[in-house]
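Design job #97: recover the sequence.
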């Protein structure tokens, strides 16, 4: 069995895990020697993996492009001053947010949270642009459908539960990382799909965190792309996060299920309808356990070479290597930021 894993893509913990065209070698044996078969099969695996990696990189890059419209990774003094002004007066941020949420349907939400607990979010929805606002001394968020920045003529339901932005995974993650970071994969109950947040802290002149800017990236298009990816008649591919939960599957597997009470549960490749994916994931887990055991014993698993795109090519015994993660424990399911 051939296992092919990809390194963390753009700082986010997505790993491409299994491309196994089971009957390819048997077909090729009628045309070439055993060594040629292995070379051709490996070449096919590499080509498919490269296509999926590039597609994933392109998808993740959208979040960076939109967040760069608010704050650069390395901000100039003028950009820092502008970001601090937005945090002091969130209403001034709304016009820029309105423009950014219309750039791509995969990044529909732009928001900020301040050190004092204020929050302002702008989201493009099928019904129009939804604005969510919480004052620094507030409890839940107020929601409005707005036709333009500052408009509050169509109020929506008021959030009764406390929404404290400073304790949310996207805010705490950026503050702890002291830089731009992706959140763990979560489930959006509103759009019924997986998403991640890309967030970045902004500091005041004394060096403390003044607030955090963020965007949400939906992952449905990534899942759709893998499901329609041409692999082979007897091949399969899937993407998991750092917890081993499915993010995308060429078999079209459900990525999460409702468990009641407004909660969801992520699915594992071990629950796939595709026997090849189940077997590959089982082998992957065994390889990861063996690699961890070798590391604890001071031994190195099979060597891994990295090319300029960050792909992992295992040589020698099949092995899995996970890079140290920056993702936070989301502290439960659900779609609330």
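Job complete. Output follows.
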């Amino acid at each position: 069995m051939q296992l092919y894993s990809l390194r963390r893509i753009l700082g986010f913990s997505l790993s491409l895990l299994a491309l196994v065209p089971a009957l390819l070698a048997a077909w090729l044996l009628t045309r070439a020697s055993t060594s040629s078969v292995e070379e051709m099969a490996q070449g096919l695996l590499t080509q498919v993996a490269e296509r999926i990696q590039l597609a994933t990189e392109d998808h993740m890059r959208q979040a960076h492009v939109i967040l760069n419209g608010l704050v650069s990774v390395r901000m100039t003094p003028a950009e820092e001053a502008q970001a601090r002004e937005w945090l002091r007066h969130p209403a001034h941020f709304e016009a820029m947010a309105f423009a950014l949420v219309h750039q791509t349907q995969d990044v529909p939400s732009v928001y900020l949270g301040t050190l004092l607990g204020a929050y302002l979010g702008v989201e493009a929805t099928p019904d129009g642009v939804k604005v969510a606002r919480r004052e620094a001394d507030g409890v839940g968020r107020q929601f409005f459908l707005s036709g333009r920045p500052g408009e509050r003529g169509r109020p929506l339901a008021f959030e009764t539960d406390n929404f404290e932005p400073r304790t949310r995974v996207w805010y705490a993650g950026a503050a702890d990382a002291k830089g731009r970071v992706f959140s763990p994969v979560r489930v959006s109950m509103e759009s019924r799909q997986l998403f991640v947040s890309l967030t970045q802290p902004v500091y005041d002149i004394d060096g403390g965190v003044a607030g955090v800017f963020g965007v949400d990236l939906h992952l449905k298009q990534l899942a759709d792309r893998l499901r329609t990816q041409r692999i082979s008649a007897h091949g399969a591919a899937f993407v998991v996060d750092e917890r081993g939960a499915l993010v995308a599957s060429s078999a079209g597997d459900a990525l999460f299920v409702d468990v009641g009470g407004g909660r969801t549960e992520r699915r594992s490749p071990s629950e796939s309808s595709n026997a090849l994916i189940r077997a590959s994931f089982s082998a992957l887990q065994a390889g990861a356990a063996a690699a961890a055991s070798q590391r604890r014993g001071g031994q190195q698993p099979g060597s891994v070479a990295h090319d300029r795109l960050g792909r992992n090519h295992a040589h020698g015994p099949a092995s899995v290597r996970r890079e140290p993660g920056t993702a936070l424990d989301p502290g439960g399911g659900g779609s609330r930021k």
